Amino acid sequence: MDKKYRIQNAETIPSPSLVVYLPHVQYNIEHAIATVGGDVSKLRPHAKTHKTAEIIAMEREAGILKHKCATLREAEMLAQNGIEDILIAYQMVGPNVNRFVSLQLKYPDADFKVIVDHEESVTALASAAARLGLNVKVMLDLDVGMNRTGIPLGDAAVDVYAQIEAVDGLQPWGLHVYDGHIHDEDVADRKASCDKSLAQVEEMKDRLVSKGLDVPLIVMGGTPTFPIYAKTPGVEASPGTFVFHDHGYTTHFPDLGFAPAALLLSRVISIPTPRRITLDLGHKAIAADPDGVRGIVLNVDGAEVGKQHEEHWAINVPDSTPIHIGQEIYVCPTHICPCVALHPFYYVVDADGYCRGTWEVTARNRTL
Amino acid sequence: MDKKYRIQNAETIPSPSLVVYLPHVQYNIEHAIATVGGDVSKLRPHAKTHKTAEIIAMEREAGILKHKCATLREAEMLAQNGIEDILIAYQMVGPNVNRFVSLQLKYPDADFKVIVDHEESVTALASAAARLGLNVKVMLDLDVGMNRTGIPLGDAAVDVYAQIEAVDGLQPWGLHVYDGHIHDEDVADRKASCDKSLAQVEEMKDRLVSKGLDVPLIVMGGTPTFPIYAKTPGVEASPGTFVFHDHGYTTHFPDLGFAPAALLLSRVISIPTPRRITLDLGHKAIAADPDGVRGIVLNVDGAEVGKQHEEHWAINVPDSTPIHIGQEIYVCPTHICPCVALHPFYYVVDADGYCRGTWEVTARNRTL
Known about the structure:
Oligomer: homodimer
Number of helices of chain A: 10
Largest interface: A-B, 69 and 69 residues
Structural class of chain A: alpha/beta
Order of helices and strands of chain A: EHHEHEHEHEEHEHEHEHEEEEEEHEE
CATH architecture of the largest domain in chain A: Alpha-Beta Barrel
CATH topology of the largest domain in chain A: TIM Barrel
């Protein structure tokens, strides 16, 4: 295992626990800023990965002043921590429509933006905003192939954007494009995929502008496509995972240059056979997403993850003889974002490798 | 969809949310008691599924006075709610050893038991207990084929049990056997699998007793094997899932006779195509375990779950035309236990189908 992940006072940390290495977080933030050539106006990190007030403070300290988020609780956390430019990249439906407009009243200094992709959403949002006398900034969510949310580029998209302009209470504020389907490990291929999306988005923007509609903002991409949008004029990039990074993105996208900054600290609770150990790290502590390998063991040579349960993980090892009950095991998760949401707080580790306390996962819950 | 799951005031519940139907919980508790022929002394439900004080109160009201749990926080929740007989069916390692013995000091009225499966665990536990002048009741965890924790039946198991008796600070308190590997859908096959385990466990008990060792308690099984151990003399059954039940166990073990009592309330946030809708129900709200189908949609005919993300779930439908943005979608999870741990509280629905408030998931976190 890379020595930089060894925690000098690991015996003070109960397991299973999430641990975050602050020097690596700091490095990732600085590397993100270097990736946009120092122009922080191009950076809108997604708060869904860390959900943590202290991380927002670290980003602010580095000059990052605007954020993206998915839940109302994340949006409120951002507003509470002095962030004035907040994009909620999530469609508001049901009771969340009124909760969102109430948030605007509660934090008048924050400049909230939200996305829509359907005329019914526009109507519901406009009705709630107009009732409170608000003027809500709304971005159109475009689908460039993710097949998740977003309206396909075309006439219907233009119509919905024009509808935002036409109704009382809403103000059209540009285009939002998430492209998590772009998975090319080869950098040139990934750039080609992004260029294809960019051409479509530019064409859509031109159509809207030619109709006299304002398009003040375009927000695109996640962590894998970040290096491309970082260099694209007129586009804000919105990486999320980078701040903690994980095994999945490190393996598939080594070109990104970020370092894993969050691990799971586990311990051996059972040594059933000469070839198997069992960890106290079930899928209630390290997320079951993705299917398959949910993380890798860093400090046991030849370890291969086996069957996982709620509070247990069977690990196959070449030889369990030298391993002892209670031994600390460091695991790098394949997908960090859902892991953070499983923990109420994480232990923070300093540059000397010492755990110095805990930071709350402030926006772990969805409720305000 | 079965009308009994329709929530009359669903529009008051933000989504995604966990909802629990109290009449069905009550039914499941009563059905569990009926399964042991009314003899509640045979029942030791696992608190890991619900992690909730009010559910413990419902069980106590029905006469259930002893529980099993996995985490120290669950154990503390049980003690705080007046439960005096608490089995922590989890190996204590690292800082958890001292945290466990401290719990005994903090709740002197509670009769805690814990499990071990390795001589190193016995030594660590004995050392901590003796230091505080405690006498801890310890059960030997046996592996009858689950391959997770537990010592295989045989001479080594006898030696560890004798070691518990021999050291200061510990008191041998019987055998713990979890058999989640028994998956036979056919009831006769399942009984045959259980009988095989039972014969082994009985033989082990006889060996221990013949050596002059006490074996006051045998705790076996989970929900699928519950009907078998419910009828086995000298054995306590410890089902967990039954209290809320789920789609997975309903499908694989219809003989159990429990009813799903917990659903996820979701809403349509996007209708991208005539054949697809997207729900606000990602794997941060419905657990990603098991691999594959993580839940089924109850109130859209022909709905088939597709790709899921952190806050989104694509659902393929025969025709999205009649579906509207914000429409409530009821989802029955395949595996309820890890879903509960994703929520800070759940909405409780009464016999008339009205949501009457929320109950906290008290032991959601692992920390005391």
